[in-house]
Amino acid sequence: MQNHSNAGRLPPGQIITKKLPVMYVGDIPQINRTEWSLKIFGEVQKPVLLSWDEVRQLPKSRYTSDAHCVTTWSRLDNHWEGVSFSDLLTLVNPDPTANFVMVYGEQGYSANFPIHDLLRDGVLLAYTLDDKELATEHGFPLRLVVPHLYFWKSVKWVWGIEFLSTNKLGFWEQSGYHPHGDPWLQQRYTV
Dmax of the chain from CA atoms? Predict the structure, then answer.
């Protein structure tokens, strides 16, 4: 249901929901934050392996954004807190050839991006949603948030970020989802 205050915020074919639906394939992983780490590697000058405490010590960013799912639901005004993707770049110093990024999550999930998509405002690795620690089913301990693309691109349970010179397809993209996923262009599937 769209109202006047939501004008211009709902992409074609989307319906507003108040809840954040839980969608995934397989089991929800149970991750112990003391054993978890974030690996940033690939075509970078300084690969890093960050513990949970080290991630939490990085500069915090807060963004409010809308989430648009390929299955046609949209949830407006999600309040995220975490580390902006651009702040992570300063840690690893990507090579000039690193034009693409693959983000990896548990259960074999991954999503591919041209690097410029991840440098936009509002893109971050979130650890809170609506001022609460991320629930396990929503991606605890860390979830990528890419508000200008369909929500499948916002990988849950992130453990790795790989910088690449060539584009590779991620988990859903290999299964027929569009390689980019712009909700405003209805880039849902490749077929």
Answer: 48
Nearest to 154 by CA among 163, 143, 164, 162: 143
The burial of 87, by beta-carbon neighbours within 10 Å (0-12 exposed, 13-18 middle, 19 or more buried), is given as middle
The answer to whether the predicted template modeling score (pTM) of the entire model surpasses 0.85 is: yes
Residue type present at position 148: H
Q: Which domains does the chain have, with CATH numbers?
A: 35-185 (3.90.420.10)
Residue pLDDT, tens place only, 39-83: 999 999 999 999 999 999 999 999 999 999 999 999 999 999 999
Write phi, then psi, for 72 (nearest 5 degrees): 95, 5
Could you give the strand order of the β-sheet that contains 158-164, starting from the edge strand earlier in sequence?
A: 48-51, 37-42, 158-164, 100-105, 110-114
CA distances from 163 to 69, 73, 87, 170 (A): 25, 31, 15, 13
Q: How far apart are CA 43 and CA 97, in angstroms?
A: 7
pLDDT at 142: 97
